Amino acid sequence: MFNSLFKIVYFVELVLITTVRSMGTAKFRRATVQEERSSALDTGLLALNGVGMLVPILYVFSSWFDFADYSLPAWLSWIGAALFAAAAVLLWGTHQAMGRNWTPTLGLREEHKLVTDGVFRYIRHPMYAAHILWALATPLILTNWIAGFSMLVPQLAQYWLRVKAEEGMMLERFGEQYRQYMKRTGRLLPKF
Fold first, then answer.
1. What is the DSSP string of 121-134?
2. Residues with Cβ < 8 Å from 110, sequence gap 6 or more?
3. Mean pLDDT of all residues in the chain?
4. Where are the domains of the chain?
5. Residue 130, class by beta-carbon neighbours within 10 Å (0-12 exposed, 13-18 middle, 19+ buried)?
6. Per CATH, is 5-32+44-60+70-103+112-184 categorized as 1.20.120.1630?
7. How does DSSP assign 3-70, residue by residue?
8. Does position 62 have pLDDT exceeding 70, yes or no?
9. pTM of whole model > 0.85?
10. Per-residue model confidence as pLDDT tens digits over 105-126
11. DSSP single-letter state for residue 71
12. How far is it, in rounded angstroms, from Cα 31 to Cα 112?
């Protein structure tokens, strides 16, 4: 347990990102989902993501996965810590902009609005970008083949599965307004 400075760094940042997520989830609970479009595969990947987020916690608080440790220069781990912090800021900005429009599954609210301000001014899927950034930061901070990479595969799989379905759903609801928005923005990175 906490036998590494970077386990402590990871845990502190995990508390930060969990707090950000909890605040966004609280807004979600106060709004009704009108149209749910999640598949069994999507739900399964969501659960797998949850497991992928728990494995690093087990690594931080136990020695179960220590046999799979590797080493990196400390400066790379600090870059990972900065990326994780950036992911938390991006996640916070996403929840701030989305408000009650956010759902943890593929779905639309009764009075769902197309959000194009805040971080959405630059990218269409900042929440996916935040989670992928978090998943990329983890193996830099937690230098362990199991704990470090446990989130990356499920995050990428869920992104590839969901993004087309989500954009199709938005095109159905918002039509030309969403098409124009797509022309102005990148999926995960700003358009240059």
1. GTBS-HHHHHHHHH
2. 31, 32, 34
3. 87
4. 5-32+44-60+70-103+112-184
5. buried
6. yes
7. -SHHHHHHHHHHHHHHHHHHHHHHHHHTS-EEEE---HHHHHHHHHHHHHHHHHHHHHH-STTGGGB-
8. yes
9. yes
10. 777 767 788 899 999 999 999 9
11. -
12. 10
pLDDT band at 147 (very low <50, low <70, confident <90, very high): very high
Mean pLDDT across the stretch 163-179?
A: 91
Q: Is 55 within 8 Å of 147 (Cβ atoms)? A: yes
Residue 142 has pLDDT above 90, yes or no: yes
What single-letter amino acid sits at 145? W
Is 80 exceeded by the pLDDT of residue 3? Answer: no
Cα-atom radius of gyration of the chain, to the nearest Å? 17
**Number of other residues whose CB lies within 10 A of the CB of residue 143:** 20
Query: In the prediction, which pLDDT does 74 show?
Result: 93
Burial class of residue 33 in the structure, from the number of CB atoms within 10 Å of its CB (0-12 exposed, 13-18 middle, 19+ buried): middle
Among the listed residues 85, 82, 72, 54, the one whose alpha carbon sits nearest the alpha carbon of residue 147 = 54
HSE-CB of 177 using CA atoms within 13 angstroms: 9
